[in-house]
């Protein structure tokens, strides 16, 4: 069975190439692919969504299309957690179906055999060893024979912290992403977004960002118990703590040092040349010292 087909909404893959730059289109206009762009997040053409009056969708894991090394209980726990993340922010309920064939959304593991992924998009791996690559999963659009097909050949794990395999792929991260597609979200250009189309082996990415929340709530509205302030409270507190730590770290430094830190912060934000602020500062300091020495030598001649 082919993992991807031309009728699928999107495919999630790990590749070894560098992702191309995404150019955002004007708000609510359609880009060349037909996807409706409203911000970093996008919708599928026509902005399809589930229209159940009771706002209830059922799901189930296939009893036959399984991954031999994963316990069924672990897979079911991953599905519960992944669906719950979306239910936290929209007024949609997700319930595990008693019968697989009766589920609105069917999840299973399948081999990707034909080497093709028509209409699929990629999720990128920056792994230098080149061994982490290939299609991870694909899914359907809303109301279209709901399914999530996971590429069985990858080293899937339901416990990334305990799994030491260098090429392990976190199942919950990928399933959470694919649920976004099943609900109607296309890919996002925001790197931190759940719907960003690139991920690495051994990366865990399960928390929805403001981009994901804005996108899905534009389709379904907000969960009546949802509050942006409460939902992102921990993120806000963490950011405040980072700012406080940075202030303590820079207190007492010279104007030159603080300027270097600020400059490097900007450089690192837009360039992958420096992996840390200290490496950037060191490099700039060395460059400045070099030109000072050259200027002194010129003045002496």
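^ structure tokens above, recovered residues below v
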């Amino acid at each position: 069975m082919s993992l991807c087909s031309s009728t699928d909404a999107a495919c999630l893959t790990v590749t070894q190439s560098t992702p191309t730059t995404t150019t955002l289109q004007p708000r609510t206009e359609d880009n060349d692919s037909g996807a409706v762009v409203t911000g970093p997040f996008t919708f599928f053409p026509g902005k399809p969504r589930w229209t159940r009056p009771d706002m209830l969708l059922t799901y189930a894991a296939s009893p036959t299309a399984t991954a031999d090394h994963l316990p069924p209980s672990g897979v079911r726990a991953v599905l519960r957690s992944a669906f719950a993340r979306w239910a936290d922010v929209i007024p949609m309920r997700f319930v595990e179906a008693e019968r697989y064939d009766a589920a609105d959304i069917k999840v299973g593991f399948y081999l990707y055999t034909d080497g093709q992924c028509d209409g699929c998009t990629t999720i990128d791996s920056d792994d230098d060893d080149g061994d982490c690559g290939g299609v991870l999963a694909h899914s359907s659009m809303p109301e279209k024979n709901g399914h999530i097909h996971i590429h069985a050949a990858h080293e899937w794990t339901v416990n990334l912290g305990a799994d030491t395999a260098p090429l392990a792929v976190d199942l919950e991260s990928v399933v959470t992403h694919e649920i976004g597609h099943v609900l109607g979200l296309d890919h996002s250009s925001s790197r931190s977004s759940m719907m960003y189309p690139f991920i690495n082996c051994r990366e865990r990415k399960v928390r929805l960002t403001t981009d994901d929340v804005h996108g899905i709530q534009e389709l379904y509205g907000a969960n009546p118990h949802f509050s942006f302030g409460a939902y992102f409270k921990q993120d806000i507190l963490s950011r405040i703590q980072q700012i406080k730590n940075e202030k303590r770290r820079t207190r007492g430094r010279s104007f030159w040092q603080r300027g270097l830190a600020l400059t490097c912060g900007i450089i690192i934000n837009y360039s992958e040349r420096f992996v840390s602020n200290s490496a950037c500062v060191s490099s700039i300091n060395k460059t400045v010292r070099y030109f000072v020495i050259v200027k002194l030598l010129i003045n002496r001649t």
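The chain has two domains: 10-225, 230-300.
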